[in-house]
Specification:
The complex is a heterodimer. Chain A is 54% helix and 6% strand. Chain A is mostly helical. By secondary structure, chain B is mainly alpha-helical. Helices cover 65% and strands 8% of the residues of chain B. Chain B has 15 helices and six strands. A two-stranded antiparallel sheet of chain B has the order 1-2. The chains are: A mainly alpha, B mainly alpha. Chain A binds chain B through residues 1-2, 14, 26, 30-31, 35, 38-40, 112, 186, 188, 191, 193-202, 205, 208-209, 212-213, 216-217, and chain B through 22-23, 25-29, 32-33, 73, 104, 183-188, 194, 197-198, 200-202, 204-206, 216, 219-220, 223, 269, 272-273, 275, 278.
Chain lengths: 283, 315
């Protein structure tokens, strides 16, 4: 296992979009999702019956359910026939906006560890991607990549009634984009259980095994590996498209920063800036 | 001290208000919102008035090194670190209580107490009282009548004066911080080792445990050989070069011979293979006046600053 800790690239602009996304995800987990998820008991399975019901209802209401996405209507509104797997103890939600759930699911997390891991990856890889493409395209990449990841999961598990939640698909998209723009950049990483403990590695050495692990992990785990793999491929493709069709994305911001950083050249003979006319007594 | 007491009391007031706002069932929500409130409070005061109320009351201000006006990123960075330390300090009594409840509670409590202790120790023991927040953000707390722009070089000189580093016959001893950074950059010019590491990670991923363990053993052997060869031939690894360090024989000032270099790499490998031993290595190097751990003692080497030494130790 290798966990990224920090991108060793040179200092960039403050990644406001990444920071905002982290703040939104954390705030939703802490203040809008069921409080029982914060205590870590959902991981140990020691929730009370009422708490368990609250959590499953919450995820059924706001998470993406593959069989609902497939039929574009909620289970309560008639999609039940398409749901052939994982239907036990799943509450029905009337009038659920199924399409919107593709987006809302991106901002839900199942546990504090789920949230912490996702936010760590978003912070390490997201800042560079935002710096390259700018805030708007980055946000588009995040959301579209996340939805694409969820759709990849839906394609493989179309009969499932189990909700899929988490920003993992969107963050995998960001990682896919990072692979394109900075595959050779150095990432300070924690490598376990091998020696050295903390070492800088090229990004491809982290992201390559990650993608392979998502492709080869068996389907019976609680992790939506198809969403990760789909999101990563989608992110790579979106970044490729952005680079090809909007090559100037993010450059305006970088130029502005460079202008701010570099003092204007002054001609020592006249004490004027060369690209402006000298100030004369008459003028 | 008085400044910190005043700021601590105001911080408690901020936390009290936050805790009144958030229901008790959302413990983590309370802590995170409290952290955000403390950070905002600290950052806004420092950026707008150049000091928190406690510092203003005692005629102190926060200055960014080499700058007359503090950069917002610097102010917020300092505020985040300060707030984490302050919050850990405030909740330490509760964390001590949690430590007795369960296994996870023990870990959580130990982390909080560790952060609080580290934060306090970093302030008490640091030269010029530049705690971890000041060092990360590149700031310093000075009296109001200090020069408008505080010179980084002067601060560094003051730091060096309070914590002198020994001078060997071959140059100044490399700092532990530089050596840690050098260790992190160890694989920067070793693509074969990076590819080997990827192979091990992939083997773990696909659940071939025996293959993964076998590959890991081969990888460690390669690492030892590579380390020994680079130290003997170049007087250090890529990380050493990047940090301006050189591993030299304490007798000759040249790069060590292949035998001692191999012994040095072998002893290091023992610590790398058993990460719980790493704190022992760290403490050993801290206590040694010349920063020499068991690996340096075995090989008879010392790690010096090659740029100041004027000799690359055989490199």
């Amino acid at each position: 296992m290798a966990f990224p800790l920090r991108d060793e690239s040179t200092r960039r602009q403050v990644p406001w979009t990444v920071l905002t996304l982290i703040a939104v995800n954390v705030a939703i987990f802490l203040f809008l999702q069921p409080a029982s998820l914060q205590r870590g008991e959902s991981e140990t399975g020691s929730l009370s019956r009422d708490e368990q019901l609250e959590v499953t209802t919450h995820f059924a209401e706001w998470g993406s359910i593959p069989c609902e996405v497939r039929s574009l209507e909620s289970r309560a509104d008639g999609a039940g026939g398409r749901c052939t797997r994982d239907t036990d103890d799943r509450p029905l939600v009337d009038g659920k906006p199924v399409l919107a759930s593709l987006l809302t699911a991106l901002f839900l997390h199942g546990s504090i560890i789920h949230l912490a891991a996702n936010m760590l990856f978003l912070w390490v890889f997201g800042a560079a991607v935002e710096d390259r493409f700018g805030p708007g395209p980055f946000l588009g990449l995040y959301l579209v990549g996340g939805v694409a990841g969820t759709l990849a999961y839906v394609a493989v598990n179309s009969g499932s009634a189990e909700p899929v939640v988490g920003a993992s698909g969107a963050i995998s998209a960001v990682m896919g984009a990072f692979l394109l723009i900075g595959g050779r950049r150095r990432i300070l990483s924690f490598v376990a259980p091998l020696p050295l403990v903390v070492v800088t590695l090229p990004a491809w050495a982290l992201l390559g095994p990650y993608l392979v692990s998502q492709l080869v992990t068996p389907d019976d785990t609680a992790v939506a590996v198809q969403a990760h793999a789909g999101g990563m491929v989608a992110g790579f493709v979106i970044a490729l498209v952005l680079r090809f069709f909007i090559p100037t994305a993010g450059q305006v911001r970088r130029r502005r920063r460079d202008r701010t950083d570099a003092p204007p050249p002054v001609d020592p003979a006249t004490w004027t800036i060369p690209d402006r006319p000298p100030v004369t007594a008459e003028g | 001290m008085l400044a910190r007491l005043i700021d601590g009391a105001l911080g408690l007031l901020v936390l009290y208000l936050v805790f009144r706002l958030v229901p008790g069932s959302r413990v983590l929500g309370r802590l995170v919102l409290g952290l955000g409130a403390l950070t905002t409070y600290e950052a806004l005061f420092v950026l707008q008035l150049r000091a928190t109320p406690g510092k203003l009351a005692t005629s102190l201000r926060v200055a960014e090194l080499d700058r007359a006006r503090m950069d917002p990123v610097t102010g917020w960075t300092r505020a985040v670190v300060t707030s984490v330390g302050t919050l850990a300090l405030i909740i330490s009594p509760a964390a001590l209580g949690v430590m007795t409840t369960s296994g996870p509670g023990l870990v959580l409590g130990a982390v909080v107490v560790g952060i609080a202790g580290g934060y306090v120790l970093s302030i008490i023991t640091a030269p010029l009282r530049r705690g971890v927040a000041d060092r990360i953000a590149g700031t310093i707390v000075v009296p109001f009548d200090a020069p408008e722009v505080v010179d980084r070089a002067a601060v560094d000189d003051g730091t060096d004066a309070q914590r002198p580093r020994p001078l060997t016959a071959w140059g100044r001893v490399g700092t532990n911080e530089a050596r840690r950074r050098a260790r992190a950059a160890r694989l920067d010019d070793s693509p074969v080792l990076v590819v080997g590491l990827v192979a091990v990670l992939l083997a773990w991923t696909v659940d071939y445990v025996a293959l993964a363990i076998g590959l890991a053993c081969v990888w460690v052997a390669l690492l030892v050989v590579d380390e020994a060869w680079r130290v003997a031939r170049h007087g250090g690894t890529a990380g050493h070069r990047r940090e301006g360090l050189a591993v030299v024989d304490e007798q000759t000032g040249e790069a060590p011979a292949i035998g001692p270099a191999f012994a040095r790499a072998l002893v290091l490998a023992v610590f790398w293979l058993f990460p719980p031993l790493l704190p022992v290595l760290w403490i050993w190097m801290q206590l040694s006046t010349t920063g020499r751990g068991p690996h340096d003692l075995v090989a008879g080497t010392v790690v010096v600053e090659s740029t100041r030494a004027g000799s690359r130790g055989g490199a």
